[in-house]
Amino acid sequence: MTDTDAGPAPSLADARERDAADPLRAYRDHFSVPEDERYMDGNSLGLAPDTALATLDRVVDEWKRLAIRGWEAADPDWFHYGEHLGDLLAPLVGARESEVVVANSTTVNIHTLIGTFLDTLPGTPAGPDPTADPPAVLVNDLDFPTDHYAVRAQFRQRGIDPDEGLVGVESRDGRTIDEADIEAALRERDDIGIVFMPSVLYRSGQLLDIDRISAAAHEHGALAGFDCAHSLGVVDHDLRNAGAGGVDDGTADGAALGTGADFAVWCSYKYLNAGPGATAGLYVHERHHGTTPALAGWWGNDKSTQFEMRHTYDQADTAGAWQIGTVPMLSSAPIEGATELIREAGIDAVREKSLALTDLLIDLVEDRLGDDFSVGTPREHTRRGGHVAIEHPEGYRLSEALRDRGVIVDFRPPNVVRVCPAPLYTRYEDVWRVVETIEAIVESDAHREYEPRDGGVT
């Protein structure tokens, strides 16, 4: 069951009543919501908010008016824009402003951060003891593929066999990862130097316990890193103090020496609603500032000496050091406006509504749909991200039938229809109507009119 009290199935009238009382209902008006559709794919691409379009238009106008002078004369200036956006995002991840920057893509950030921290470990060519046995990175077998691609590539660059270095925690049920199995893997192997896990599993929507994983990694002597692509903007985070009870004593090491996640990455086009290909972001705990980035580039140079054009890298003493190339202004500007809505609404309120929407969705699936359906997402609030995995043997054909009926979802093999009621623009009535549409499709066998999946984007 969900964390709500058991009772009769919610009615359409119940859903409309909740919409009328919703404190976040006005935010929907800021988004370009497609007419005659129920958009439930915000975990892949968020809808366009007017605030994001406004900041993009502002930067385009600055480009027209100021041209190259925009690097200094724009407001805010372009030269420090990655750091400026990092300041805006820092409260959403529970970090200090100096620990967050907007830069690169998610995969590039995984490359540079995994590479950076591998180079601090014994057993790598740049590590403190290159003759030691090589370190391992602990991941899991339900990860988004790009995470493994990047880690494997960084092992190859250091002459380490990826099949030996990449250690995967297996899922017990094919849906979720048990944190106890992460802890067991750390106990079983003394060569794990980095634990790199997602905050939310992309397929099932399970929210992992960042506090528990960080504490286990540090107790083992390993670093803790996270891919927060499926949580930033819909889950409240406290990365700096992870594993420390959320108490910051003001020191550079967080609440105590070794507490806090060491690093994290994320994208900006899902729950942050910053548009397709929006610039990604990263977090590096303050205790690691000064560590040489594995992928150094001129935009990570200290800003006060960057245009002295030295051939010797003078890295910034903040997370800004992990910037590589020039900030892409037109891909970054929407982040400023899009996150304005989340900051105004408050991440706690966003999270509360997200859980209420997914509670309703789970309740309706269990009450109204048949035995062929199951929910692959944990019911407990503390273990659930922002989307729900509805499982059905004909998941792909069902997803296609839904799209043709104006319900925009996506499919992930082998049998998952991902449904995401993004809290800033989704109504409770939308959730009710989605389940009503699924019910009508299966009762009429309409999904059987579609061919089984043969590849392509969903």
TrEMBL record:
It comes from Halobaculum magnesiiphilum. This is Kynureninase. GO terms for molecular function: kynureninase activity; pyridoxal phosphate binding. Its cofactor is pyridoxal 5'-phosphate. The gene is kynU. The keyword Acyltransferase does not apply. It catalyses: 3-hydroxy-L-kynurenine + H2O = 3-hydroxyanthranilate + L-alanine + H(+); L-kynurenine + H2O = anthranilate + L-alanine + H(+). One of its GO terms (cellular component) is cytoplasm. Belongs to the kynureninase family.
